[in-house]
Amino acid sequence: MFVRGLKRKCFDGEEDIEGTLAGIKAIPSYNLQRQSLLDMSLVKLQLCHMLVEPNLCRSVLIANTVRQIQEEMTQDGTWQMINTQSTGQASLDRLVSTDILCRSSREQAEGKHIPGYSTFNKDFEGDQTEDSSETMSTASSVQAPRNLQSNMWEMENPQENKGNFQKSLDQIFETLENKSPNSVEDLFSEVDNSYYDLDTMLTGMMNNTKMGHCDGLETFSSPATTTSNSNCKSDLNELDHIVEILVES
Amino acid sequence: ADIISTVEFNHTGELLATGDKGGRVVIFQREQESKNQPHRRGEYNVYSTFQSHEPEFDYLKSLEIEEKINKIRWLPQQNAAYFLLSTNDKTVKLWKVSERDKRPEGYNLKDEDGRLRDPSMITVLRVPVLRPMDLMVEATPRRVFANAHTYHINSISVNSDYETYMSADDLRINLWNFEITNQSFNIVDIKPANMEELTEVITAAEFHPHHCNTFVYSSSKGTIRLCDMRASALCDRHAKFFEEPEDPSNRSFFSEIISSISDVKFSHSGRYIMTRDYLTVKVWDLNMENRPIETYQVHDYLRSKLCSLYENDCIFDKFECVWNGSDSVIMTGSYNNFFRMFDRHTKRDVTLEASRESSKPRAVLKPRKVCVGGKRRKDEISVDSLDFSKKILHTAWHPSENIIAVAATNNLYIFQDKVN
């Protein structure tokens, strides 16, 4: 946890990110930063499920943030498919329940080509599913510019990822200073298979472990491709799962 | 010493209570001002210390219930004893704090050690007399109000009828009678039928200072609802709804989080309410629901740091706010052990620091300034040097004098107006 000063920057310092959304979409790193915020939020929700008694207010606020990002990604992703869909930021009032949101996105996503899975770590390349048509070679240094494809995660066979599960979690949680890798393994040792999906989605954070995900994003110089709606589909499944966790707790 | 989690003056300002993370309550009492030293204001000394709550374990959920005292509220004094309510996440307790400075001596049937005397040996009758003894302050739990909250209690508020009080958790508010501990009335319930649809929680609640039928509660979406208990038993429909329209130019993914209200307080007059969200303090007129009448920036330089503050969880810190006795000045805390005061009439504000290094006893506090960019002057501190682990969440203002109590983690600071 950061206690002294705020050396790490994420959205910080980039005022246009916090400006009107319509103008931002032209900036290549916006999608990356949004994805990073989504990843961070999902990790936070996972963590607070593990703690003794989760703070309900905090969980609700994080879940709402995740929902907002999902909404926006849905609109981005289906923007070209559905011409009649309004482009404005959907107000949360119109969001009846995440179930409905998920359903409509999934239906729209059917039959669409699923872009390749991008990886930032050589260890993962061999574990990708049959569906991924493109894999990117990675540079060893996080500083090197990359062709960043949208992160995408399938409902993969958990066994394939199991080998990397502990390792990836360790790398993810190195960035969270208040957790030691060992304690994280203990936390997740009894987790059921559905958590593995979260892991693969979070591999986007992997490469940033050395610098922290906020800093790492700023080094990407190549433009990101548009987020695919399958990105939202997987993320929305994750949101369902997170909300289930909230409900059960 | 443990981390202080709540600070509260009683209605006369004679007593100051603090609750801490270890479930302890420490009460300070103001020295009587002596005629010999009229210039020396009364200082606060420890009056009583007791363990209010103990850690518990909820076996059903396999969760620990923290003993941390979330709030203390005093009852107005009605006799020689003092009464206060203290609460942790689940249980509210009514404590009686009373003094004993005399004891009876000269019983007939027992001797000074308490041993019974042989009645056949008693030849003379005497009347017991009260003799002075060293002052003893004892705290006894008089009522325990338990098992009424599924979620964490965030607020308690004593009603102006002095017979009832309310306790609020994340989703429900209950009304209690002080005499009845096995029953409470649910007056607000915002729990959705399907918890997956939950998007908003109650963050604070308070009774109106004069109208015993009126109370307000704030939410995590930045709204305040005023309810009238005469309208119906379950106050799910508000009488007034206070919400400021969102500024579209400031919209970000963090907009909702920073709009979440962490504290709501009626003014002493009962005409206004003050709310605290992450970056601002707002004053609302009860007669105008569509926007606040005043907005004060507490630490706007953090607006560009919201992502980092989200990452390290500081964005979820719950700051409280207080009015002074005349409702002319409001005060709230910030980071780096800074706290801020805003004069509503002159529109001037000041930043002060509560730390050992920057304040010696009886020295006047020096105003502090945060440098937001460009050249940093000698006494200024830059935003990046702020210590976010030193947060002032809890402060209190004496009901009639300019005396403030500031809780800085595990230290309590009491500041007074400079005496000329």
Automatic annotation (TrEMBL), chain A:
Family matches, as Pfam families: SERTA
InterPro entries: E2F-SERTA_domain_protein (IPR052262), SERTA_dom (IPR009263)
GO cellular-component term (any): nucleus
Region (Disordered) residue spans: 113-147
PROSITE patterns per UniProt: SERTA (PS51053)
Entries under PANTHER family matching the protein: CELL DIVISION CYCLE ASSOCIATED PROTEIN 4/SERTA DOMAIN-CONTAINING PROTEIN 2, CELL DIVISION CYCLE-ASSOCIATED PROTEIN 4
Protein name as it appears in the record: CDCA4 protein
The encoding gene: Cdca4
From TrEMBL, chain B:
Keyword Repeat: yes
PROSITE patterns: PR55_1, PR55_2
Keywords linked to the UniProt accession: Repeat, WD repeat
SUPFAM superfamilies: WD40 repeat-like
Lineage top rank: taxon: Eukaryota
GO cellular component terms attached to this protein's record: protein phosphatase type 2A complex
GO molecular function, one term: protein phosphatase regulator activity
KW DNA-binding (keyword) present: no
Xref: InterPro entries: PP2A_PR55, PP2A_PR55_CS, WD40/YVTN_repeat-like_dom_sf, WD40_repeat_dom_sf, WD40_rpt
Family named by the database record: Belongs to the phosphatase 2A regulatory subunit B family.
Protein name: Serine/threonine-protein phosphatase 2A 55 kDa regulatory subunit B
Gene: Ppp2r2b
